Structures are given as structure tokens and as C-alpha cells.
Amino acid sequence: MRSRTYEVGRSTISLIFGDITTSKAEVLVSSDDYFLSMGGGVSASILRAGGPRIASDVSLVASEGARPRLGNVVVSTAGDLPAKYVFHAVTIGKEVLPPDAIVRHATLAAMRLLAQLGCRSIAFPAIGAGVAGIPLEVVASQMAVSLVGFLMDAPDAYRVELYLMDRYGLKRPDDYFVFFEEFAARKMGVSAQTDAARSALTAPMAEAHAPSAEEQEYMQRRHQVFLMLRQLDTRRNQIEAAILRALAEPEAPQPLTLAQLNEQLEGVNAIRRNYQVELVPSNTAAESVVANSVFVSSTSEDLKPYRLAVRRVIDGMQMKFIGMEEFAPEAQAPADLIRRKVRQSKVYLGILGLRYGYVDPGTGLSMTELEYHQAVASAKPIQMFVIDKNATIRANMVEEDPTKYAKLLEFKSRVMKDHTCTQFTDEHDLADKAEAALKEALPA
Fold this sequence. Notes:
Elements: E1 3-8, E2 11-17, E3 27-33, H1 41-50, H2 52-64, E4 73-77, E5 85-92, H3 99-116, E6 121-124, H4 136-153, E7 159-164, H5 173-188, E8 191-194, E9 199-202, H6 213-248, H7 258-277, H8 283-287, E10 293-297, H9 304-316, E11 320-322, H10 334-344, E12 347-352, H11 367-377, E13 382-387, H12 402-418, E14 422-424, H13 427-441
Parallel strand pairs: 2-7, 3-5, 3-6, 6-7, 10-11, 10-12, 12-13, 13-14
Antiparallel strand pairs: 1-2, 4-5, 8-9
Helix pairs in contact: 3-4, 4-5, 6-7, 6-11, 9-13, 10-11
């Protein structure tokens, strides 16, 4: 078999071994430098097949404005080819950007432009794997993440072709199919389903009917990791886009400095790597758990009396309290720190009030939501408590920021759908119910 097609949402991705210039897609993608020279590899093949009209068109585009930035896409006609357009993805430029970021941005820029032009089919080469010298493993993994992520969210149906060339015949086509599927699963947490009738890349379903409680728990973990990886990918793309703007216009005023953006990006990448690890059970993680320990998660100032009441219960039961009050100042990023602390705990106890709380600038999520996601991904026993609608509420307990309040409602809705939540009216009611729940979760 020289090709395989995967269903992704309403769309398809086809991996094809052959010459991209034979594609019938409306758009062909060329990997090029910022001079748009079309001097080698796939770009040279497209130029030869499309004829001199492409070269004339590209020369006109290149002479009319500033040089395109790294990761950008420039549109030209397709000359004698049946396609409507050629997208020139810039993979060699003056800016300095990690190879994985170049591939992601060029791929996503091409897909967004495809939608804007009203086209529904596109053929990609392995972007940057030729003259740009980006390793094939990086290209394959980042194109898998970018294309699958885009198509899962797309309201329209697209036909995407990814042309592969094995110049030296070192691998069979099936090897590359497995390669692609493994990257989609390992980098995004998606499920690859392949049988005689169809192949599909789908989000793991938390509600899947599993044959055992252990399998159901595993599916819930996979689903939670998938959601977090999608969130982190969105945030990473936003930060990298801001970095590209800062590199292209160094004199223009920027909301954040380049150093701050790079720091946020590294934080997101670190958390992403950690969540990928959660897809594979680890004996090391199990060994690091502190016996009879409880991680208490909530917003801080508004729920201080409630946290204190729960802590007294934990201390009285001779358990180990783990929470923000215990965190010593560290050089480690807060999101990384809470991830480690949640993994060290035996039980996660979450308290949801009426505030979303401090938002981590790297991920765009509140610390409370990050703590919850980590607890689910790490398969912790979870005890959730939600403030009752009849509880006495002080002014400082209510979220004033409308954007954060919307995030809180979405977060709370998801938690209450996935867990049996206990409601409480005041700190004394919470303490009594937390004690009963902990006795069940951590019997003596």
C-alpha cells in the first residue's frame, strides 16, 4: 500500500508516497527560503512542473514588499499545474526560531489561508525536511500535531494530502504510517483506530464504555491529558506568534519583552512534556507519593477560612497536608511546582467557590484548574466540594472579572459533570463533609 487515509473530524489526511506535483489538490505547498528562490527540493520540482509563470509570479510578489518572515506563507499562482495556488512556506529566514516552531507555524498558516481562500484541498510536502535541514522526526511530529489539531476543530471538511519521499528506500510505507500514528498519539494523546474498513484519529472519550473500572479510569486520564495538551498547544501557538512579531518588528512597542515571551514559552513546553509523560504509567511517579497525604486545592484569599477548617481536619486525622501554604520559595515555575506537588499527594481535595483565581501567564489557566487537571492525569482519588447556592457569600468571594467568571463556570460545569461533588454551606459544614470523605478515601 502506497497511501493511507485517516478520518479526522469531518476531514481526511492522506499520507502518500509519490510526487506532490501529481496531486489534484487546489493548493500545493512549497517549502522555501525568504527570498522565495524555489532553488531546491520540492520547491524546485514544483517550479519545473508549473513552468516559468510561477517564477514570474513569485518574483513579482517578492519584489513588491518586505521579505516574508520565517514561518509565514506567501501565495502565488500554480502556473501550468492543475492547482489554483502554490503556498510558499518560509522555512529558511533571518529570524532565529526553533525548528519545531517553524514547522508548526508554517503548517497552521497554510491551513488558515486555505480556509480564507475558500479552498478545501491541500497537498503538503514534509515541510522543512529538505534544504532547511529540519530532522524528519521533528517535521513528522509537528505536522501531525498541527494538522490533526486544526482538523479536529474545523467546522468545514478538508482534504489534506501529505506527500512523503524516501529517497534511499530505507523504510516501507507501513513504517511511516505507524510513525505518523505514534506521533499523533504521543504528542496529542489522540487514539489511532485502524482496521480493514477505515483509519481514524480521534479524541479519547472519557465516557467510553470500558470493560473494567481500571480501563475506565485510564480512558478518563487519557481524555484529561488530551484536553490539557490541546490547551497548551493553543497557548504555545499564541506565544510563538507574539515572538515572531517581536522579531520582525523589534522597534515596535510590545506588550511583553522577548525574554518574557521566551520564558513563558519554555514554561508551556515544560508542562507539555510532563503531560506527555502522563500517557505512560511510571513506577517512579508511584514511588514518590507521600503516604496519607492530601493535596488541598482552591483559590486563596476568598476561601482562607475554608482551607483552614479542612487543614484542621487533616491534621486531626494525622494526615499530611499539602497545599500552597506549604510551598517554599523555589526557582521552579509555579505550574511545574504544583504539578510535582499534586503527583506527590495520595488524595486530591478540591474546593470550588465563586472565584477563578490567579491565572498562570504561560498556560492561560488558573492554578486551581491546573491542579485539578494534574490530579486527573495522575489518576489521583479525587474529592470535590462545591459551594452551595444558599451559602452565605461575602463580597470578596465573588469573581469580578467577566472573562475569568466565564472560565470558572466552564471549569465548574466540567467538574460537576465528571465527578460526584459534595456541596457545602460554610466552613464547618465543609469540615464535617471533608472528614467523612477522607475517612472513606484513606481508611485507617
